[in-house]
UniProtKB/TrEMBL annotation:
Residues 23-259 form the ABC transmembrane type-2 domain. GO terms for molecular function: ABC-type transporter activity. PANTHER family: NODULATION PROTEIN J. One of its GO terms (cellular component) is ATP-binding cassette (ABC) transporter complex. The chain crosses the membrane at residues 23-43, 55-77, 97-123, 135-159, 165-185, 234-254. This is Transport permease protein. GO terms for biological process: response to antibiotic. InterPro entries: ABC2_TM, ABC2_TM_bact-type, ABC_2_transport, Nod_factor_ABC_transporter. Keywords: Antibiotic resistance, Cell membrane, Membrane, Transmembrane, Transmembrane helix, Transport. Belongs to the ABC-2 integral membrane protein family. It is found in: Cell membrane; Membrane. It is a multi-pass membrane protein. It comes from Streptomyces caeruleatus.
């Protein structure tokens, strides 16, 4: 309970800092709009028009929650570089609480980005065709995956020497992880091993799970994969999220201890 209380206090501190840093807040809210317009209208007209735009919203949501990782990476790296972590270490605060507070506050920022992405989808003509419980389940699954991805961002921040390197490392792996998937195109259209990689990519399964939960069908002629993750997308995404949390909480706590004990 003490760790949870300390985590809540640190999460509140991070949210207050975000409110006083309008540049980060604008990025969090504008970036989903840019991707929605770019993919939906620049590329979407050649991939199926309105039918594709309805289909791609699940991919946009999957991309949005994945890219929230960069806020975690940059935010924690900045605290490390500016000495805020050293100040917290002088207090009787659990090292897990410091990291948990960061990922929890970024989960709130992710919720705002998801809301903006959903609004963009509605303006482009997307509609869910299932009930409110399925839609709520989809949103919760996306936030669970975002929380898991945030812990990857924590580890990247802890291994990077400074904020600039952390920001670059946080994006280098995200772009291929997002686009080598079925978030926006059919994974079966990718050549060679990329198709298999896309099939087992958890971003693919998250997009597929959201499409199932929202009742969005692919446009005519759109090839769909039939691998095991595609048949059980919600289960596979949940399992990957739990595994990522378990692995990167352990790695991040270990790395935090070794980095701050020097």
């Amino acid at each position: 309970m003490r760790v949870l209380a300390e985590s809540a206090d640190l999460a509140l501190r991070n949210l207050l800092h975000l409110r006083r840093t309008p540049g980060l807040l604008i990025t969090c809210l504008v970036e989903p709009v840019v991707y929605a317009m770019l993919i939906g209208y620049v590329f979407g007209n050649s991939l199926g028009g309105p039918a594709y735009r309805s289909y791609m919203v699940a991919g946009l949501l999957a991309q949005t929650v994945a890219f929230t990782t960069t806020f975690t990476t940059v935010g924690l790296a900045r605290d490390l570089e500016q000495g805020m972590v050293d100040r917290f270490r002088a207090l009787p605060v659990s090292r897990v609480a410091l990291l948990l507070g960061r990922t929890t506050s970024d989960l709130a920022a992710c919720g705002a980005s998801v809301a903006v992405t959903t609004a963009c989808g509605l303006l482009m003509g997307w509609r869910p065709h299932t009930g409110p419980f399925e839609v709520a389940a989809g949103v919760l699954l996306a936030l669970l995956f975002s929380f898991a991805m945030s812990w990857i961002g924590v580890f990247v921040a802890l291994v990077a020497p400074n904020t600039q390197v952390a920001g670059s490392l946080g994006l280098i792996w995200l772009f291929p992880a997002t686009f080598v998937s079925s978030a926006f195109v059919s994974g079966s259209s990718l050549p060679g091993p990329l198709s298999t990689l896309a099939a087992w990519n958890p971003i693919t399964s998250l997009a597929g799970a959201l499409r199932q939960l929202f009742g969005n069908t692919p446009p005519p002629g759109f090839r769909v994969q039939h691998d095991w993750p595609a048949q059980h997308p919600a289960l596979y995404t949940s399992a990957c999220s739990v595994l990522l949390i378990a692995v990167f909480v352990t790695l991040s706590t270990w790395r935090y201890h070794t980095r701050t004990s020097r």
